[in-house]
Amino acid sequence: MSFLELKDVNVGFGPASSRTEVLSNINLSVKEKEFVAIIGFSGAGKSTLMSLLAGLQAPSSGSVTMNGKPMQGPGPDRGLMFQNYSLLPWLSVFDNIKLAVDRVFPELSKSEKADKIHHYIKMVKLDHAPDKKPHELSGGMRQRASLARTLSLDPEILLLDEPLSALDALTRSEIQDQILNIWETDKRTVVMITNDVDEAVLMADRIIPLTMGPKATLADEFEVRMERPRDRHTLNDHPEFMRLKSEITQFMMDLNEESKGLRKNDIVPMPDIRPKDFALPTATPRLKNRHSQPGKPKSAA
Ligand SMILES: Nc1ncnc2c1ncn2[C@@H]1O[C@H](COP(=O)(O)OP(=O)(O)OP(=O)(O)O)[C@@H](O)[C@H]1O
After folding, report:
1. pLDDT tens-digit profile of 86-108?
2. Which residue range forms the structural domain that includes residue 237?
3. Which of 11, 172, 255, 292 could form a disulfide with 167 if both were Cys (CB 3.0 to 4.6 A apart)?
4. Does 212 sit in the ligand 1 pocket, CB within 6 Å?
5. Closest residue CA from atom 30 of ligand 1
């Protein structure tokens, strides 16, 4: 049975007269403990898709189910992590995580909560900085704090919406490795949105492209049949990595070209009409006499 399932889902915004159909006919089935990457262009509807999976957005039609039950609103069983860190700036790393833990595990004692928080702070290698406020952290450290907060909720599924795209390449690979380590030890289900083909092939079991919007839909998936753990340092010599990377990149480029072609068809050719004369109309009497006093005809002087 599917763990998370979207069936014939459509999402549109706005009234009928000016409606934008963002997602169309989305069918997605995610198995437990799977790592699925959704890859797509900017503005295609990736975040809208993620909001559906998180229960933050209801479909206009179709169904979203988790564990066979219709999804009704967001819940702690789904841990969301966004590109922006969404940490409260006036709270330390520890207190940001505590806020989430207090809400989801009110039954735990103070020391049990502290143990839990420190466990995740250590997992993301921030044990040297639990008392630091977000402004005292680098971008990568903030994103790790945000990951620790998400993990501390013990979610059944991690929903990662381009969580690493604002980071430099080095920090990005470091956090990719951490997410992979956590996923491999804890074996949680992950759906990650990315626009980076290398990242998708390195991390995922399956990669599903989202076509260009409006009416974006999921295209046929690419299965990543590469053994784990995957070593980023030797990936470029791995024939399967190179094959997938080139196929997916080509597929995305074709999508882009196709959508440009569709846009061209939207352009209505105008008839080649030229005005007969570009000369300005002759000055009006009002302009001509604009310095003369009103109500005093010139002839009367
Ligand atoms: N609440 C909303 N009301 C109206 N339009 C919306 C709403 N949410 C999203 N859209 C529109 O849906 C389209 C897809 O937006 P979405 O944020 O899902 O794309 P995206 O692929 O995540 O983009 P990006 O990569 O740039 O973040 C956009 O045209 C956006 O304007």
Report:
1. 899 999 999 999 999 999 999 99
2. 4-77+155-265
3. 172
4. no
5. 43
